[in-house]
Amino acid sequence: MSESLAILEQQRAAILARILNLGDFRSGSISAITGRCGKPDCRCHKPGQPGHGPNYRLTRKVKGKTVSETFASPAELRKTKREVEAFHQFRQLSRQLLELNERICRARPVEEAPSEAEKKRPKQSNRRRRGK
Asked: How far apart are the C-alpha atoms of 28 and 60, rounded to whole Å?
């Protein structure tokens, strides 16, 4: 059962509208890092102590290299979490858009009239050129 082209195009418009409403987004992942500092007398070196942290970092690829960013405040961390989540939604909507466009391409009828580029070109003469 094939879907009508008009319905598919409405679905595509809805996905595009959702993409436009995403707002700011950025790629990457946020991870929590805990660790020990370099001060030997610090509490983090005592047995049973968890260490410092968690410190949150955004890790992403830029021109093939891994880049990490730390956050100056909890507000900056919350903002970045929203942006990364919006990026994941963007990727999901992009996949849906691609699948829908493929269905639209299959559903769109083929044009019967040939375009100017498809019209047959006249054959070249079999006569040899003079001067060669």
From this structure: 4
- Start-to-end CA distance of the chain, whole Å, equals 62
Query: What are the structural domain ranges in the chain?
Result: 5-106
Q: Are 87 and 26 in contact (CB under 8 A)?
A: yes
Q: Cβ distance 93 to 19 under 8 Å? A: yes
pLDDT in tens, 32-82: 988 888 888 888 888 888 888 888 999 999 999 999 999 989 999 999 999
Backbone Cα Rg of the chain: 29
- Dihedral of the CA atoms 67, 73, 76, 81 (nearest 10)? 80
For the chain, how long is the longest CA-to-CA vector?
97
Tell whether the torsion through CA atoms of 80, 33, 92 and 61 is positive or negative.
positive
